[in-house]
Design brief:
This protein has 85 residues and is mainly alpha-helical. The chain has one domain.
């Protein structure tokens, strides 16, 4: 649902009807394996860099928002590439 909200907020359809697949999800899908591996590495980096069990709620939400924004930006920037094997 979060990806749909981002899609509607930042990439409104100019034709009045939605495409079969939203562009952000299509960008994620184009490089699925590479995207999955990079996200797993990023998750590990977050878990190693901070004590996730003992962070406050505000810090946890801030980290999740930054993580989601970075993941979406990475997928959007790599949408023209074909990194799949």
């Amino acid at each position: 649902m979060g990806y749909l909200v981002v899609e509607i907020a930042f990439f409104p359809s100019s034709t009045g009807h939605s495409a079969a697949v939203p562009p952000l999800l299509d960008a994620i899908n184009k490089n699925g394996l590479a995207f999955f591996l990079i996200c797993n590495l990023a998750t590990g980096l977050v878990n190693v860099s901070m004590s996730t069990m003992y962070t406050s709620d505000l810090t946890a939400v801030a980290v999740l928002v930054m993580y989601s924004a970075a993941v979406c930006a990475l997928a959007w920037l790599g949408r023209g590439l074909r990194l799949a094997i």
